[in-house]
Fold this protein.
Amino acid sequence: MKMHLISGACGFVGRNMVKRLYRNTEDALFIIDDLSIGTHPSTWMEYSQSKMIGDLEVIGEDERIFFWKGDFRELLFNLRMNPRYIQDTYGLDFEKFTDVFHFAAIVGGRLKIEGDPMAVALDLSIDAEFFYWACQHKPARVLYPSSSAAYPMWPGVFLSWPERVPTLPGRPSN
Ligand SMILES: NC(=O)c1ccc[n+]([C@@H]2O[C@H](COP(=O)([O-])OP(=O)(O)OC[C@H]3O[C@@H](n4cnc5c(N)ncnc54)[C@H](O)[C@@H]3O)[C@@H](O)[C@H]2O)c1
């Protein structure tokens, strides 16, 4: 059986991906979220039963969803120390993750970048840990969305860049 990894699995993009993969494949899903923004799977998917293997929640009668609640960087650290950490700790039988979907992020758009640098640093640290691990683990495929922070704060601003920027409210007129 294939095992896919989905980080940020309980957020907006992640939970829709989890539901789709669960519905359209027979693959197992190892899903991760610290629930800082996302909500527990019981709030957004059919949730019949679950059992625990240590701190890992196994969801559904067919036991295809494995939910690890915590900071993704902590799991990545453990995986770097021991590439078979998940197999050894939880007794799961798979060789490597097939597809990896990386959605764990601090999302906030451009205003976040300009107003909350520590949140940006945290976001970058998640990505740094992730890609460091991915280069070692070499999953078959990685899906990593662009940041929504790439989009403009004010609709239309970048269509007429740079002429209109100085006229925006709250921006210096240099
Ligand atoms: N939603 C969009 O329209 C959109 C558009 C373009 C790109 N994206 C990108 O897609 C990704 C996901 O976006 P989203 O809208 O689902 O965001 P979201 O905030 O709904 O989901 C992110 C999830 O990551 C979790 N998370 C945060 N830090 C974590 C950590 N350290 N460890 C484990 N989990 C952690 C949060 O609890 C949350 O559930 C982001 O990179 C975002 O920039 C989203």
Notes: The mean pLDDT is 87.
